[in-house]
Amino acid sequence: MRPGPLTSFIVLMLLLITTSPVVAGDYLNSAHGNASYGVDRLDGPYAIGNCAHCHEQHASIDGNEPSPVIDDSPTKHALFTSAYTSATDNFCVECHDGTIGVANSAIVNHSYSYRAGGLTTDFASSIKDIFDLDSVDIASTHNLDDIKTLLSSAAVGLPWGYTSASHPCEGCHNPHAVQGDPANSDTGRKTVDSRGYPLSRPSQHTPLSGWGVWGDDSSEKMSTYAATGIYQAPYYYGSTSNHEPENNTTDDGSNLTDVNTFCTDCHNKTTSIYSTTLGRPLYQFDWGTEIHGKGSAIDLPAKTECRTPFIDSNQGSYILACTDCHEAHGSPNIFLIRPIVNNNAVSLPVGTTYWGDLCSSCHAATADLRAFHHQANDGYACTDCHESGKGPQVNNCTGCHFHSSYNSNYRLF
C-alpha cells in the first residue's frame, strides 16, 4: 500500500527534525537579520528581520507600492530605492539616518571615538550625519565616490568580485553579515557583553571566500597582528587606568579587531587610490615597515619622549592600530583624525598646519626630543616647525612625518 500525501508529508517533517541546533547562518546572526531588532521598514507587513524589508520581490507589498514610496525605479538588487547616488543619498542612509522615516525606529550609529574611545559628546549620531560632514569645510570623510571607483573591478583590476553596481558601503561591510558594535545598545558604548563585528574584508568579497565578518576570530585580533611586536591599547578618554575599546584594563589588543590587516587591503604600497578631495593620489605605504607599524622606531638616549601607557623601553617594538588615530567614516578633523587620542582632545580642522594636538597625545616634548629635532632640521627656519607667535608649539609635524615618509639619516616616519 502506497502512503498518501499526508503520510508522506509527516514522514518528511520527521526527517527534518533534529536534536542538533539549527545553524542560522550569517544573515540570521547579523544585525539586519536579528528577529528582535533587525530590519523593520515602516508600514511593512513582514516580521522583523525579513528580507522583504530591503528587497521587493515584485515591486509591491500586498499589491500596493510600499509606504513610504522612496523611489519607483527598479534596481539591480530589487532594493526599495536606488542603491547609490551620493554619500548622503543612497540605500543605506535611508535607514541609517537617525530618524524614523523609513525604519520603524531611529537607528543610531556613533563615531568610533564615542563607541570605543569614551568621547563624551559625539559629533554625529548616525552614518548620514557623519557623511554630512562633507558639507563642512573644516571636516573630512571617507569619500564614498572614490571608494566606489576603487571597488570597480574594471577600473582598477581588483579581483574581489565588486562591480559598477556594487554599493561603496559594501567595500567594508557585508550587509547580510554585518553586526552592531555595540549590539543593540542603548548607551552606544562598546562593552565586553555588547561586542559585535561590523567589518568584512574587501579582499574576501569573492564567491568562494564566504565573505563573513572580520574580527570575530582570535586570529583576527590586533594582538595576533602584533605578535612580532607589541600592541598597546591607548587610554580610554577620562581614564589613566582603563583602555580602549571596552573601557577596561585589557590593553594587549586581544579584544580589538585586526584593523591593520583590514585597512591595508586597500591602503598599501601597491594600490593606487585617487582622492578627489585632495586632488591627488593618496600616499602609498607599507605598514609592515612603517615606524608606527611593524618597523623599528628611533631611540633617543634618554628615552623620555613617550607618554603613558606607552613605555619608552618598548618604543622600538610598538605597533599601532589604524583606529588609534583615525575614524572610519568621518571626523571633524583633517584626514579623519579622531577628536580624542589616548585620553587627549585633538582639534585639527581642515586647513590647519598645527599638528601638536595629535602628536603630543603620545609624544612628550622633552628636552632630548627638542634637541633631536633641532639637529635633524639644521638649516631650516624656526617657522618651518613652529607657528609664529605660539612659542614652543610644534607647527607642521607632517612636513617630515607622514605615511610613507622615510629619511635614511634620521629614520623619520
From TrEMBL:
The keyword Signal applies. Residues 322-366 form the Doubled CXXCH motif domain. GO terms for molecular function: oxidoreductase activity. It holds the Pfam family Paired_CXXCH_1. Residues 173-204 are annotated as: Disordered. The keyword Lipid metabolism does not apply. InterPro entries: Multihaem_cyt_sf, Multiheme_Cytochr_ET, Paired_CXXCH_1. Residues 1-24 form the signal peptide. Keywords: Signal. PANTHER family: DISSIMILATORY SULFITE REDUCTASE SIRA (PTHR35038), SURFACE LOCALIZED DECAHEME CYTOCHROME C LIPOPROTEIN (PTHR35038:SF6). This is Doubled CXXCH motif domain-containing protein. It comes from Desulfuromonas acetoxidans (strain DSM 684 / 11070).
